[in-house]
């Protein structure tokens, strides 16, 4: 598969790059994508929720009424969950929502995400670029040239470029990441993938290990 290389003005440079069929040309595995996205979202949860159970409520433990003769159910403590202010039955406790999926499944999920975007013609390859200083206007000009201002975009760079990252930070729907940090959730969330030409070879090396 070959993709045209564009410059930041949105013009075709005349260059073409060959991309791996093993990454951009497979049949997307939707279940692998589902598992990897589910894992990503689970890992975003803090899991710090907590409510007091019967043993943790700060109340007296004395028997609040006699056992028999009241006409009501027996009750031993005001801490009982049936009373207002009592403990909660099986309340939430701090926990980690993460779970394990195999490394090969994660790789398959990312390959499937790239292939899905390739099938929908939602990938653009850009010449390597940078900015002299972090300016939001500079990145907006790039998006304007590509007619992607109101589109959810994900720019994948070979390594961290602070000027490009900071320039994009205040723009809604625009995200910048690196090859090492790219994940299936971001790939599927974006409507358009912008991949730096120099990032392609690193991407193929990582996913074809």
What's the total helix number? 7
Distance between the termini: 20 Å
Structural class: alpha/beta
The 3D shape can be described as elongated
Secondary-structure element string: EEHHHEHEHEHEH
| CATH class label of the domain at 2-29 and 101-207 | Alpha Beta
Rg measurement, Å: 27 Å
Described by strand count, sense and barrel closure, the largest sheet is: 6 strands, mixed
Helix content: 25-40%
% residues in beta strands:
5-15%
Q: Please state how the strands of the largest beta sheet are arranged side by side.
A: 2-1-3-6-4-5
Strands, total number = 6
The CATH superfamily label of the domain at 2-29 and 101-207 reads Ribosomal protein L4/L1
In the CATH classification, which architecture of the domain at 2-29 and 101-207 applies? 3-Layer(aba) Sandwich
Quick recap:
One of its GO terms (cellular component) is ribosome. The chain is an alpha/beta fold and 209 residues long.
Descriptive report:
The chain has helices at residues 21-24, 30-43, 103-119, 136-145, 162-168, 184-189, 197-207; strands at 2-6, 12-18, 123-126, 153-157, 174-178, 192-196. Helix 5 links the parallel strand 4 (153-157) and strand 5 (174-178). It has a six-stranded mixed sheet with strand order 2-1-3-6-4-5. The longest helix is centred in the middle third of the chain and has 17 residues, at 103-119. The protein is 33% helix and 15% strand. Helix 4 (136-145) crosses helix 5. By secondary structure, it is an alpha/beta fold. The chain is built from seven helices and six strands, in the order ββαααβαβαβαβα. The protein has a domain at 2-29 and 101-207: Ribosomal protein L4/L1 (Ribosomal Protein L4, Chain: A).
């Amino acid at each position: 598969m070959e993709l045209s290389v564009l410059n930041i003005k949105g013009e075709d440079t005349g260059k073409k790059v060959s991309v791996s069929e093993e990454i951009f040309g497979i049949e997307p595995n939707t279940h692998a994508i589902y598992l990897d996205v589910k894992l990503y979202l689970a890992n975003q949860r803090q899991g710090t929720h907590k409510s007091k159970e019967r043993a943790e409520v700060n109340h007296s433990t004395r028997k609040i009424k006699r056992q028999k003769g009241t006409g009501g159910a027996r009750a031993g403590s005001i801490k009982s969950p049936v009373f207002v202010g009592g403990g909660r039955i099986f309340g939430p406790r701090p926990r980690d929502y993460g779970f394990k999926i195999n490394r090969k499944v994660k790789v398959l999920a990312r390959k499937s995400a790239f292939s899905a975007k390739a099938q929908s013609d939602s990938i653009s390859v850009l010449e390597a670029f940078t900015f002299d200083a972090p300016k939001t206007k500079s990145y907006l000009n790039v998006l304007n040239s590509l007619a992607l201002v109101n589109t959810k975009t994900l720019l994948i760079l070979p390594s961290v470029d602070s000027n490009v990252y900071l320039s994009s930070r205040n723009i809604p729907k625009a995200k910048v990441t690196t090859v090492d940090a790219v994940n299936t959730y971001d790939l599927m969330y974006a409507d358009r993938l912008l991949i730096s030409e120099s990032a392609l070879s690193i991407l193929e090396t990582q996913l074809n290990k």
